[in-house]
Structures are given as structure tokens and as C-alpha cells.
Amino acid sequence: MKDSIRRKELADFLQTRRKRLSPQEAGLRSDSTRRRTPGLRREEVAALSGISLTWYTSLEQGREIRVSEQVLESLSRTLKLDKDERSYLFALAGQWLPGDPESHAGSSEMISPALRLILDELHRFPAYIVGRRWNIVAWNRIAAEVFGYRDDMNDRERNVVWRMFMMEEYRQLFVDWESIAKGQLAQFRSFYGKFPDDPWYNDLVEQLLKSSKEFEMWWPQHEVIRSPEGRKELYHPRLGVLSMDYSSFSLAEDHSMIMTVFTPQANTGTMEKLDRFSQVRV
Q1: Residue range of the domain that includes 64
Q2: What is the tally of structural domains in the chain?
């Protein structure tokens, strides 16, 4: 992401978070003055954060300003950002969160033989690993069956965000596709601001903005979330309905790489379906 684009993302993000916060939520006394804009005014954010209005306005205008950790923490408190939004704010400002292990992440996305063995031994549970660009770098055999992964996938087909928004099979695979897609986009957004020197992110976003009406509609909302665990319901053409929980883990050898493992929800018949598939394929 080029610096000019990153600054615009920071400006847009600050505006969306300012406009969603009411004066009452920010601890300001309500008055009868008619407000021409929703949420807080710029001068209110500046005053509550202990910074000048001119300086804060420059931030929202995407100007080239170096932001200190202290100011970012103050803005996070004023705008009542949650931990994921706070992390995203720091990333867009070109800073790592204090103590964030991802600031020391390695650049290689080759998985070790030990990780390959772990994936293979999880033969009952779909599991895969994505890299810093959200491309699938490794998966096990049952994940290939459930999600349609193939060795001959091109770069775009390996990207989980591209697959979610651009592949019709995925719209059919996920029972509540809209909710799942929004959640994944919010997760991806938290990564988007972390790699300002990688133009690949900007290229992907530009293509999706042109190609997907849902992506074009949801991307400007700046929703961000890290979701290490949750639930998804799938409809597989061969296995039927699969109700699964998922858990995600950062790899110790490279914190920008994530392993996700899907496990069946109890009393849904999903375990039996996965087991039948696993036994047939062994």
C-alpha cells in the first residue's frame, strides 16, 4: 500500500469512527444545537484527545503527518475503539502496537515439515494455513474436499477473500454467505493496514472493488475485527450440511501466518459425515 493510499485509509477510518460516536457516548453534555453532521465534530475529537484542531483536521485530510504512540492511544480512547480497531489504527499510522509480536514476523511463507505433518494428522478436521497476503499456503486432504482447494490454483484462487467474493461455489457453500463474507472482510481489513509497503494489497482491493458489488458496498465501512474462533454452517454438495466451529492460531515461527482448524459441532451429525469421508479416502 502506497503512503498516500495508507494516509487516505487512515483519514477515512477516523471519519467513520468519529461519525458513529454520539456526544453522549463520548461523555459530552447534550445541547439543543442542531448538528449538521452525525456523530462528533472534529473540534470535539481534538479537544477530547488533547490535540489541536488543525492537527487533527490534517489527519482527516490525509496529509503527511507523523503520529506518535501517545496521540494514537488518545484517539483510541476518545473514539472508543475496540482492540481490533485500535490495532488497525496503529497499522494505518505506520506503527506497531507496543509489544505486538507481529512486528517481528518473518517474511518466509514456507511451512516446516513438522507443520505439514500436523496438517496431515488432522485428517478428520479440515485445516489450512494462510500467509500474510491471505493466500492459502498449505491445507490437508479433507480441507481440499470441503473447500475445493487444488494444487493447480492460481494466485487469485489461492486468496481466501477473492474466493469468498468472486467464486459462485462459495456463495452456495456457506449457508449464511452475507454474514460470513462480512466477517471475513472485517478480519482481512485488520491485516490490510499492517503492510504499507506491499502494493499487492492495494491491487487486490482495487480488483475486488471493480468486480464485486458487495465488496464495493462494504469496504468503505472500515469494519475491522480479529476473529480467532467462531461458527460456520456449510452446505457441501456431497456431504450435505456441515455445522462446524473454527479456531485460528498464529504460528510461532511467523506470526503473520495463521492456521485455521474446523471442528464439528456436537449433535449435528457433522462428525459422522466427515468420518465417513475420511474412512473412504484413507
Answers
A1: 3-100
A2: 2
